[in-house]
Write a structure and sequence with these properties.
2 copies of one chain form a homodimer. The first copy, chain A, is built from 10 helices and no strands. Chain A is an all-alpha fold. Chain A binds a DNA duplex through residues 1, 5, 7, 28-31, 38-42, 44-45, 49-50.
Chain lengths: 193, 193
Amino acid sequence: MQLKSDKQKQIIKTAQSLFWKYGMRRVSIEEICREANVSKMTFYKFFKNKVDLVKYILDKIMEDSSKEYQTIMNQDIPFHEKVAQTIDLKLRSVDKISPEFYADIHQNAVPEVSKHFQNISNRVLNLIVDDFKNAQRNGEVSKDLKIEFIMYQLEKLFAMAGDQKLISLYGSPQDLIMQLTRFFFYGILPRDN
Amino acid sequence: MQLKSDKQKQIIKTAQSLFWKYGMRRVSIEEICREANVSKMTFYKFFKNKVDLVKYILDKIMEDSSKEYQTIMNQDIPFHEKVAQTIDLKLRSVDKISPEFYADIHQNAVPEVSKHFQNISNRVLNLIVDDFKNAQRNGEVSKDLKIEFIMYQLEKLFAMAGDQKLISLYGSPQDLIMQLTRFFFYGILPRDN
DNA sequence: ATAAAAAAATACAAAAAACGTATAGTAGTA
DNA sequence: TACTACTATACGTTTTTTGTATTTTTTTAT
């Protein structure tokens, strides 16, 4: 017996691809089972219901992202480099999620799910806040700025990094991210190095 | 009173965008009405049911495409130019349709719809067949080839024109279409002009 | 201003789909 | 052989969707 049975993995993989495309409302448990070649009983062996499955998937994604985030932060590179990599990570992880599923997660469409998502994303946010506080102590970030202000600006930056209009202005998303982080750290004034 | 009421147009537009994204199975009439800001009663004033609406939409698309096709064919340009433009038209019209909806239309998911679609697309096919027969008479296409063989090859060509692998080989879909029609008309041998 | 037409809102019975569980059975395995 | 993981089927329950009837509101034309 392995820790995660093959069947469970199949369910998760299939459900994820269906949720991503159509959102959770439009995907039934029976459909997931059919696509994953798994009987309904097996599904209920692993998950209480659809919400339970969604939570599990979100947890998994968050956990994976957290680990990647830690890896980025533990590198011996300048702080602004780390931030750039973090943005890139965030963009890739949210990639191709349908507007439908986004609404399910963030808005009140399925209260239990959006609440759960807020919980876990708050935990990740705290990690980030801590890192920025540290950076302030180390003099890598201006001590004048309130941490809440920085987080607010970071949120905006994430949004802009995904803006198609801006992306098309630069050759690649990566180029845009570099510009954005540069702007985030140094403003519009020319740098002295 | 106008020929097509605004409400009807709203329904069609909303339904089309929802069907394109999620397929017809996943979209309910009530949802269409909600999104289109139309009451359910108004929906049933215009359409018998969901299948009726889908048929209507497909008809409209086919009619529009037919007209565009006729416009292409009535131009005073070489026959191979017309074919290139036709392929481009076909690609653009099928653009962004979800795999789900594609299955609904072409496979037996909703028999009434797929049958209906075959009917109308056969009518369009006959237009094309006639044009090719004409082209054979005018000496624009080799008289040695059976018309069924040509249609078969044309079908294949349509498929290849949408193949991502091939598209990425050329800069743009248009470049690929030019190459394909060139191959379709002249084979791999160098042209004499 | 008012009558007629169009659309919305509400309510509802009937049908369909999805849910969750019970039970019996199969295939592989220690 | 007993055990485990899974499948298949069936079934009652709940939820969603459908299609219609009825009443109220809004729009439009006169």
